[in-house]
Amino acid sequence: METFDAIRTVLAVRRFKDTPIPEPIVRQIVEAGRLTASGGNSQPWHFIVIRDKETLRQLGQLARTGPYIPQAPLAIVVATDRSPLADSDGSRAIQDMILAAWSQGVGSNWVGFNNLPQVNPLLGIPEEVSVLAIVPFGYTDVAVGKGQKKRKPLGEVVYNERWGEPFK
User: Fold this and answer.
1) How many CA within 13 A on the CB side of residue 30?
2) Percent of the chain with pLDDT over 90
């Protein structure tokens, strides 16, 4: 899939088949995160790949916005060092992983956002590291309308040179 097609068509997936994701695709997803640019090349991220059903179940209980995590065959917990750009850099890595997965037919969705300290002891993450998100991945069990997004028109969010100047 071309990059812009992945951006144009990616949708949040919250229902997954129990089909395992092949190891080469899992590796490509985490490589997409690892290769993401970061401020000052600090690379403040850590990725924990979770496949164990019991751990996925526990993550689903801990993340109030992710009760569907146990349905997924895989989740990646994204943790960051505490630094000024960590949230931004970690967010960039998450988006790259989501797009890499989508380009391979694997759906996902961002769960949580800096409100997951109870995940640290479950996964042995040091206290000085923050869990930014849990991202479940899997093949969707429902048809998703690729590209059927409800977005504001370009003219409402893009300006030319100055705020309010129409983008042509």
Assistant:
1) 17
2) 86
- Please count the other Cβ atoms lying within 10 Å of the Cβ belonging to residue 35: 11
Q: Of 165, 163, 89, whose CA–CA distance to 133 is shortest?
A: 89
Token duo for residue 40? 């000052």
Above 80 in pLDDT, residue 147? no
CA–CA dist 161, 167 (Å, integer)? 9
10: closest CA among 89, 112, 105? 105
Confidence of residue 45 (pLDDT cuts 50, 70, 90): very high
Question: Left if phi > 0, otherwise alpha if psi is -120 to 50, otherwise beta: which for 67?
Answer: alpha
